[in-house]
């Protein structure tokens, strides 16, 4: 087994659960940070692996975070509310950072950002992590929250916190049909004739970035050896 122990916040979510399995398969010890009310069905069994354990708490509770990061070398912060119209408590990202600062073990924070944090392009331009959101408007509260969280990450990095951000597009793949896996969820609903699509004749062409969840998992692991903001390649790059 590798020496590194990794804490995954948002571990009961679509991406978080996949990350826990991938990390275990790659030889890491894993601690999943979950709420007492979380559905743990997508997580590995604690009884089947001596290298996987659970830590219960919430990002609103700094004490539970301090307990969770204790003894961990790397923290992957993938916890977020993905529903488009619900405000993501990005301010609680500061709790994660503070807990890591107080820890004597954490060597790096991997923050799961989003291509939404970079803002839209004017068409034909490929955005990367150097693009800055214009902040003139936000399509969703989720987008606004990711921009705010990026500022928190940049401030922390300027203060010497070893933090790396990755920017996946819209994540899709097999697994939970949640807001974090909206593409698969829409396909399932459409296939069951529960979704009606209307062509009213005035829609304009637009493009979005999508990425398979297995690619996101791999890039999180690659980012362990990256510094500051890590570019996550997008399968469709026009936003």
UniProtKB/TrEMBL annotation:
It holds the Pfam family Epimerase. GO terms for cellular component: cytoplasm. It comes from the Eukaryota. InterPro entries: Epimerase_deHydtase, NAD(P)-bd_dom_sf, NAD(P)-dependent_oxidoreduct. Residues 6-187 form the NAD-dependent epimerase/dehydratase domain. Gene3D superfamilies: NAD(P)-binding Rossmann-like Domain. GO terms for molecular function: aldehyde dehydrogenase (NAD+) activity. PANTHER family: NAD(P)-BINDING DOMAIN-CONTAINING PROTEIN-RELATED, PROTEIN YEEZ. This is NAD-dependent epimerase/dehydratase domain-containing protein. The lineage of its organism: Eukaryota, Viridiplantae, Streptophyta, Embryophyta, Tracheophyta.
């Amino acid at each position: 087994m590798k020496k590194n122990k990794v804490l995954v916040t948002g571990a009961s979510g679509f991406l978080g659960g996949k990350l826990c399995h991938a990390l275990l398969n790659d030889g890491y010890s894993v601690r999943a940070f979950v709420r007492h009310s979380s559905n743990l069905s997508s997580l590995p069994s604690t009884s089947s692996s001596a290298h996987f354990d659970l830590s219960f708490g919430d990002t609103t509770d700094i004490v539970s975070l301090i307990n969770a990061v204790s003894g961990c070398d790397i923290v992957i912060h993938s916890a977020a509310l993905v529903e488009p119209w619900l405000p993501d408590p990005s301010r609680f990202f500061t709790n994660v950072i503070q807990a890591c600062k107080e820890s004597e073990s954490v060597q790096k924070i991997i923050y799961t950002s989003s291509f939404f944090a970079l803002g839209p392009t004017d068409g034909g331009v490929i955005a990367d992590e150097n693009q800055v959101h214009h902040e003139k408007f936000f399509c969703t509260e989720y987008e606004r929250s990711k921009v705010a969280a990026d500022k928190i990450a940049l401030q922390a990095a300027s203060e010497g916190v070893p933090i790396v951000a990755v920017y996946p597009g819209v994540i899709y793949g097999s697994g939970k049909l949640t807001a974090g896996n909206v593409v698969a969820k829409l396909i399932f609903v459409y296939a069951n004739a529960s979704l009606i699509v209307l062509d009213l004749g005035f829609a304009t062409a637009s493009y979005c970035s999508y990425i398979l969840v297995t690619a996101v998992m791999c890039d999180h692991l690659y980012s362990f050896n990256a510094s500051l903001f890590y570019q996550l390649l997008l399968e469709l790059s026009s936003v």
